[in-house]
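Researcher: Next sequence.
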Amino acid sequence: MIRIFEVLALQPSQEDILLQLAGFSSQRSASNKLEFNETVPWAIGQVLDVYSPYPAYLLDQYLNVLAMNKVSKLYLDHINISLRNFNGVPNLLLSSVDQASLRPYLRNWEEVVRSLIWRLRHHARRSPDPEPFDALEREAASHANVREVLRLDPNERVLHGIDNVVVGRGSASVEFTHITSSLHGTLENGHSPKFFVESFLPANEHSALLFEQYIARFPGFLSGNV
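Model: Next structure:
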């Protein structure tokens, strides 16, 4: 595999993720990150693009967005939204609480945020170093109304998020069913890192029709490039 990596001229973090997915130990200690601006490893890109024309993301345990499929990129570019960073990497939780990012487009953002923070706490309890998780929660809680939202349902226990996410502005909203699939890394110091493929499929026929009408406006969709 190393000889193949040399021919393909992959980035070090790309090599480490592919080694982990193949069941081998990574070459470096910082093996769990795929930088957002790097080329996505082919295998991971294929998994994400299976969900086209619907959105799909690759997350780590900190809810950092490591990769996304082409439709997701088109959507974010179209609405001119940038994801908010945590330690230099785009983060789904911070983007969901930020009024200048995804929050205005999440019609049920309170449910989404409660679910993401509980999920973050779940990973923190199982981590040998919970401080990065705590730092991320503190930063998320500094945004307007987030602390109030967390107090609404303190007993919520939904590991993989809420069933549905409602996206849109104005009168047109698309309801997506949220599905999570996990990928395990190699054991490191007794800890097995996880990656998560987050996919969003229309919850009903009406939502599927609305989304297909919307996505059909993108250049590249009609030409079959998405």
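Model: The two ends are 30 Å apart (CA to CA). The longest strand covers residues 172-184.
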